[in-house]
Amino acid sequence: MHAIVIDDSRAMRLILRRILGQLGFDVVEAEDGQAALNVLEGMEQKPDLALVDWNMPNMNGLEFVTAARDNPQLREMTLVMVTTESEQSQIVRALAAGAHEYVIKPFTSGAMVEKLALLGLVPSGASL
Amino acid sequence: MSVQYVPTVADLNEIVEQVWASYLDPEGVNPLIPVESAADASDIHASVSITGSWHGHVVVACSNAAGKLAAAAFLAMEPEEVTEADLIDVLGELANIVGGNVKSMLPAGCFVSLPHVVSAPAQANHWPAAVQVCELAGLWSGESIAFSMWQSRELTGEAAA
Hints:
The structure holds 2 protein chains of 2 kinds. Chain A is α/β, with parallel strands linked by helices.
């Protein structure tokens, strides 16, 4: 499985890369939505999963989700927002734009694994 | 029209406990110990601004040593290996997480800025149009960290200095 982690914080990208790496994902990173679109354009095999921060410079996570959903080549990619935006209205906006799931920061590795299991991306009951 | 709301130390404490459990002390062996004041938490200030129905700032302040410990924990490296860029990134993300969660406790219609990190002492007076409304001060591995909220003087009814 392949994943892309999109977050303007290097520390957060590292934490997410560590979790995904332990689950067997090959991970690439991007520091904002536009950088992610650029990376994805050059990838022959598109990732199965994108973990997307919301509050980023250049192109935010919601704009990225919208752009990804409009791109037929990225239609199969599972989109998970990973963000501090926890208001119900924001969650609804993200899901309406095309995000499949929502993880609120701060999160434990266990919570992230559970969410990925719910999406069928890791076996149910998987742990780190 | 802005809504008057004063977040509490309990609000901050709830968020900070989650941050510690998730990233800084997942084993639960090295918690933040609350103290009356963290006077030494003045080397680095990371903040996000909140605008909309509430105006103010959420600030993470710490000593250089505490900042390096936090960065080392986030980045899975030794404190001696932490660079200035690591410090700025990690403390900015801490401010973003705490600020974003504070925002969720505020009335709807607030927006949170990208983080801003300053390496300078507290007396630099970074937020002249706001007053501190609450602070959670603590020691972590003997080093000082403080989380505080600064509310626009317009909301508190005070004139700007």
